[in-house]
Description:
The chain has a five-stranded antiparallel beta sheet with strand order 2-1-5-4-3. Strands 7-6-10-9-8 form a five-stranded antiparallel beta sheet, with helices on both faces. The chain has a four-stranded antiparallel beta sheet with strand order 12-13-11-16, with helices on both faces. The protein has eleven helices and 16 strands. The chain has three domains: 3-102, Beta-Lactamase, CATH 3.30.450.20; 117-222, Beta-Lactamase; 233-381, Reverse transcriptase/Diguanylate cyclase domain (Alpha-Beta Plaits). The protein is of the alpha+beta class. Helix 8 crosses helix 9 (283-298). The N and C termini lie far apart (110 Å).
Amino acid sequence: xxxxxxxxLEVLQRPLALVEAERVLWVNGALTDLLATAREDLIGRDLPxxxxxxxxxxxxxxxxxxxxHATGYLLDVVITTTLVSxxxxxxxxxxxxxxxxxxxxxxxKLQALADNLPIGILISESGLRLGYVNTSLAAIFGTxxxxxxxxxxxxxxxEEDRGFLRGLALTALTGVPVRTTAKITAQRSGERTxxxxxxxxxxxxxxxxxxxxxxxxxxxxxxEARLTFEVDHDALTGLANRRRLEGDITDRLGKLTAATxxxxxxxxxxxxxxxxxxxxxxxxxxxxxxIEVANRxxxxxxxxxxxxxxxxxxxxxxxxxxxxxxxxxxxKTIFDxxxxxxxxxxxxxSVGVAMIEAGDTASEVIRKADRAMYDRKxxxxx
Length: 382
């Protein structure tokens, strides 16, 4: 192209482009500003004109068309085409009316906002192809924005997740907002959990794209999991606590009523003379004993719980052994020397086992087991 012509066209305020074989040879700054698109993203490609543009070789012509902005929205323009050489056209763009001038300015402001938001933003341009991502999204994925454009964004997810996410995006293209969480493995930060929301957008030509947000919620999910664990578990031993026990008993009662569980029993264990251990060796020694008993019950294969203080509970499902056999088994599981400092303590426990029966309540089940344990303790005292 003639350099003097290019310099002249470059300073004009009207958006201009030179096109050959329907591919862009050159654009001026006014057109890149109008589309909010970098020059290098236009050169060598088709202009983002909805439905394409028919070029008239015989005469200068003006056509109303829709230009796709970088945000995915369509701008109504009048395109005037002039054949300037055997195969080259000059295209001049004018906004259709003042309202569209305001719209273009509005879109530029929106993109400036999106570029600086602390959450990831993505916009599809056609189908699943992304035409815009902001720097925050690229940072979440540990890459640069251009690496996520087109269909590349799906490649950052694990192969087994891509089909699901593709289906989710296709659902958004049917006009239904969607939201999900997904995991990625970023090069620098490792495994991350993302909250992904896609909202459909219908353009003036009735084509549907989507705009989406992506937030890294790894710490939030971890904190929620930690809080959930703390609500249902004992801080000292790590065992499930009384609250969790009552819920699990209720669950078993439902299964027994529905005949989806053959049988279930509850074992109640009370450490003998635990107060003496605390009083003579101190509470740290007592804590050491509680932790070791919890570990032994956890290794028994039964669901284990710390009920309160020195009391523990296990739930036993579909076990053919008798109540007496299970009481003996649990006693042996707990009984063994525990090293506390330089001392070895022989720990004994009183154990009672009771059947869980349909029609009981969780409180009644616990009372039955507590009573069985108390009876066993009294028998040993005789």
